[in-house]
What we know:
Number of domains: 2
Helix content: 25-40%
Number of helices: 14
Strand content: 15-25%
CATH architecture of the largest domain: 3-Layer(aba) Sandwich
CATH class of the largest domain: Alpha Beta
Low-confidence stretches: none
Radius of gyration: 24 Å
Strand order of the largest sheet: 1-2-6-3-7-17
CATH topology of the largest domain: Aminopeptidase
Number of strands: 18
Distance between the termini: 15 Å
Largest sheet: 6 strands, mixed
CATH superfamily of the largest domain: Zn peptidases
Mean pLDDT: 94
Amino acid sequence: MNARDPLLPLQADEAEQLAKYAERVWDDEIVPALTDYIAVPAKSPMFDAEWSQHGFIDRVVKDAAAWVEKQNVAGLKLEVIRLEGRTPVIFFDVPATKPGGNDANAETICLYGHLDKQPEFNGWKNGFGPWTPRYEGGLLYGRGGADDGYAVYAAITAIKSLDLQGIPRPRCVGLIETCEESGSPDLPFYVEALGQRLGHIALVVCLDSGAGNYDQLWLTSSLRGNITGTLKVEILTEGIHSGDASGLVPSTFRVLRQVLDRLEDSKTGRLLPESLHCAIPADRIEQAKATAQILGDEVWKRFPWACGADGGPTLPTTTDPVEALLNRTWRPTLSVTGVDGMPALRDAGNVLRPYTAFKLSLRTPPLVDAGFAARALKALLEDNAPYNAKVTFHADGRMDAAGATGWNAPGLAPWLGAALDSASKAHFGAPCGYIGQGGTIPLMNMLQQSFPKAQMMVCGVLGPKSNAHGPNEFLHVPYGKKLTAAVAQVMAACP
């Protein structure tokens, strides 16, 4: 079989067959498999300290591995690797079908996804729930299907669709982890353990990202980093009658507000330490302008505003589409994602509470080192506490490795740019779009450092309203089908 010219797209009939195969497998096998997957509360270890005893992560790993092996992809070898005390990883290896693709120095495609999930969250529509899969109007509702349970199924389907047509492709390896939603603390140990088994990575296909719309293929050009941790302010050893103590004993909530004022301008949301900001590269600004032309006001109208779907009278921080894109991808932000020390409203008596604790989520720009930012954050919040209160900030994970550093994609090789555009036009009828994402995929920075010459295809199904991590999360199945076929087409173009 002659090697395909990587700069030439597939023939129209070949692309059509890829699409037909992806559609059939999604309908007949992937949607049923993901329906079973959604029903399993396989929460990431950060949200289920007893994950090993509960067995939910092991179950989804077992189910996914069994499905992969059932596909009978020629030459595929699969292993569930379990390092002691760590979450398991699925690793599969599929030999190349292109000439010379299995030589010692031949290049390899690495496909990535994860099977662990975020916790439940409230606010699901009546009859819907995180562990209650529902398939309506092409949308598969429930926790984890889109983020990121579908990835292993789509990856294998893409490989098999090429092989069935005899379209040559490089060697492929798969890395499916189970602690991504906890910041991937176990993943570096598996990457190190796999070592040379990964091979010479030429292309990383990460299926854990988002889409600006459902009308074209979207390539993720950057990812923010993330630091999470608990900020706690303690004043008393026990609660005291508020009438007796208020005015003398400082409120822990007021102290906490003062401490956060060191970090954030409460009027604008801008983070004050300049060390948490970085210069935005000129090419990313130009990409944001191009993406703003495509998406327009949908950049900010896509969110479920409390005062109306049109965003009014509740308004975002900006209605300028370019600034909105840059705010959510290249500027640091602070979110309070949990509170402790406060009773539920129905249980709130007239008591001055002894402590207040906030769970903080700090999103850092792609070029800011997370470890540095975590140490700076701890010093900023703890030093010189008002009233000499006991103020502590404990980052999740070890302080010497706290947080996940963001990622800025390397320059796009001509072959990949051409392949992305060709695949998007073939399967969506529109050119490929480029967009930064505000979330974090710890693997990308790790693999970029390990394989500095590799190209990166970071994409995913998390488009408008899909609401990953929140209520009513859904997987847009029609987009998933097209994305699977597009990934296969790009893999075929990998030189």
